[in-house]
Amino acid sequence: MCLYGTALEKAEMDAIVTHLPNCEIVNPGTLQKSADKNEGMRYWLRLIDHCDALVFTRLLNRVTSGVGLEVNHALARPLPVHELRQGKMVSVTNPVQFMTREETLKQFEFWRTVTDSKLKAFWKEGYLLSIRKV
Fold it and tell me: What is the Cα 124 distance to its own chain's centre?
């Protein structure tokens, strides 16, 4: 979610179009406002049920909680699943391990820190202690 509307998301979308030129892309970033928040992940999983394939990326080399649920749901259907990794499509056939919702929220916060010059991360012995505005 933290990539929606960014240059990185655009680059990823361009890479998907390059690898899958005849496919219509269903971008969850453009559907956030129309999603029924009361349904939670059920909305997104039903959306996947109407797709022909799923492409995902990792956030800082980790699979976030929602993406992990979506990937494993698509694999169980079974739908073709591809990971976009450094501009290349890699076929995925096994379920992925993914972060908890709490870990995902921390990962989003960390990502925002490393991409926002107004925020600074404070570390101790390899652990993120806090994030503050500078």
Answer: 28
